[in-house]
Amino acid sequence: MMMVRHRLNISRMIYRLEFGHEQATDKVNPNTGKPIKEFVPAFERWAGKWSLRQSDILTLKGAGITNAMVFVIRHDESITSDYILRLDNKTFSIDNVSYDEGRTVDAYDLITCHQLVNKHG
Length: 121
Fold this sequence. Notes:
It is a single chain. The chain has helices spanning 2-7, 54-62; strands at residues 15-28, 35-50, 68-74, 84-87, 90-98, 108-115. The chain is mainly beta. The N and C termini lie far apart (42 Å).
């Protein structure tokens, strides 16, 4: 993960990511009668968008991940693929978190994710 520090410009960490889960609300789907789920944020972190190299894109496609987006954040082991993240009212499923192995003050993690698509209405 050493190359993250070398490729990262800290001034590009301009995105405020929300991490949370989808939870049932008081709203009910009139067609099914089931509660409608919505994103409920638990915490936020500053992030930057990570540029993927061609080899990274091919590796992700080989793993079945298409339309991937990668964010870089300050090291935080509490962020796992159990969370959903939201940016600009778009929700993303976390496919992988590459934690910085150095655990130093300037450690950064890479979060690979893909946008969740609303398949109803």
